[in-house]
Design a protein that fits this description.
By secondary structure, the chain is α/β, with parallel strands linked by helices. The protein is built from 15 helices and 13 strands.
């Protein structure tokens, strides 16, 4: 069969009860490509695009936030289009997710692919090619292609109605002009925004992190983007090394406390990290650290913690114990397996303060255990005590 444009190929696959793979691709840079897999005209899976692994993880975070992904190693390449599907099947077989959750994740992934195809079709002609092949011999769910396409079209129309047609939700907001951004926001909103806009999360990622509708989130950022305080940039998928280029307007991840330019600079206080998926908890701890003159930064996504910690080398880490996707015990164990971080004190923050929790904390070599809501004096005393012990010549013997 001759080549069709993408949308015609999708409709043809449904109407002619096609079984196999529909390959959709652009003819010009960045040469994006997607694959839709069909069984008798029903859609069973979708892959490809710029962020297949981000897309899969977002769908899981929305539907199965308690699913433990710590044992998962993301592939170094995206050549296997069924890696995400087969991994999801494993979770289903192990009864870690039910059939309804399995199907919801599949639907979310397919809808995002269709949305991106619809958006790509507005800029150029996307070509669709049909191949009567499929490695999914026994698909677990079969979905109506017309309904999926209709839903994706409604999402695309809403995106266009909000006047965002020229912006991809796969782009990540970063700070382009720090002074301009800070001057246009209250201190609280500015600090909150710098935690989120760290060049590592796309608009779609952020909508899941803050649990806010994608269009509503983008509308809240767009005035700063149009004025040049923020800009949208491309970021790689999860399996690729991320080396961001810092905008000329200032640091991408801005320190929460900056020395005044009108007074002599004070000696730098230690840098403190906080890994917590709750913005409210970050803001509380931020205020405490700010009053103690400590520099600080926050990581909302624990799966991105290790590269950020290696890059910034904090003197101490506060770590939330209960988080979706991955818990604090696993993150702490990962931290101490890294050579550059193995001696960094880690203090758990949690509302669970039982004996079993404290024992588990010791097993993963945590240095402290503070109950939420945190007491400011206790936080500052803990930092001072642990940093003093870490800098002591007898540190190794005292820790034993």
């Amino acid at each position: 069969m001759s080549e069709l444009d993408a949308i015609s190929a999708i409709l043809y696959s449904v109407q002619n009860q096609f079984s196999g793979r529909l390959h959709i691709h652009s003819a010009s840079p960045p040469n994006e490509a997607w694959n839709l897999y069909y069984y008798m005209g029903r859609v069973i899976w979708a892959s490809g695009g710029v962020h297949p692994l981000r897309r899969w993880r977002r769908a899981i975070a929305r539907t199965c936030p308690g699913l433990d992904l710590t044992s998962i190693t993301f592939p170094q390449g995206t050549n296997d289009p069924f890696w995400a599907y087969n991994t999801l099947c494993h979770f289903h077989d192990q009864q870690q997710i039910d059939r309804k959750q399995f199907q919801k994740v599949i639907v979310d992934c397919i809808i995002e692919v269709l949305f991106d195809v619809l958006q790509g079709s507005q800029a150029e002609v996307l070509v669709g090619e049909l191949y009567e092949e499929s490695q999914l011999e026994k698909p677990r769910v079969v979905l109506k292609g017309e309904a999926l396409l209709s839903y994706a079209e409604r999402q695309w129309q809403q995106w266009c109605k909000a006047d965002f047609a020229s912006y991809s939700p796969n782009l990540a907001p970063v700070i382009a002009n720090n002074a301009l951004l800070k001057s246009s926001l209250s201190d609280k909103v500015y600090r909150r925004l710098t935690v989120l806009v760290n060049s590592r999360n796309t608009l779609r990622d952020l909508s899941v992190i803050v649990k806010k509708d994608l269009i509503e989130l983008t509308q809240s950022l767009m005035p700063r983007i149009e004025k040049g305080a923020l800009q949208l940039v491309r970021v790689p998928d999860l399996n690729e090394k991320f080396t961001p280029t810092r905008p000329s307007g200032g640091s991408i991840t801005t320190e929460l406390r900056q020395p005044s330019q009108t007074t002599p600079p004070k000696p730098e206080k230690p840098l403190i990290a906080c890994i917590d998926d709750s913005l409210q908890s970050c803001e509380v701890l931020e205020q405490i650290l700010d009053e103690g003159d400590y520099r600080s930064f926050f990581i909302l996504d624990p799966l991105q913690a290790i590269p950020e910690l290696i890059a910034r080398k904090p003197a101490l880490i506060f770590l939330d114990l209960i988080m979706p996707v991955v818990n604090g015990y696993e993150v702490c164990a990962q931290i101490h397996r890294v050579e550059q971080l193995k001696d960094t004190p880690v203090v758990f923050l949690t509302s669970q303060d039982g004996l079993v929790d404290r024992v588990r904390a010791k097993l993963v070599k945590a240095s402290g255990f503070l109950s939420k809501p945190v007491d400011p004096d206790t936080v500052l005393d803990t930092i001072e005590r642990l940093l003093k012990a870490a800098n002591s010549p007898n540190n190794a013997s005292s820790s034993e």
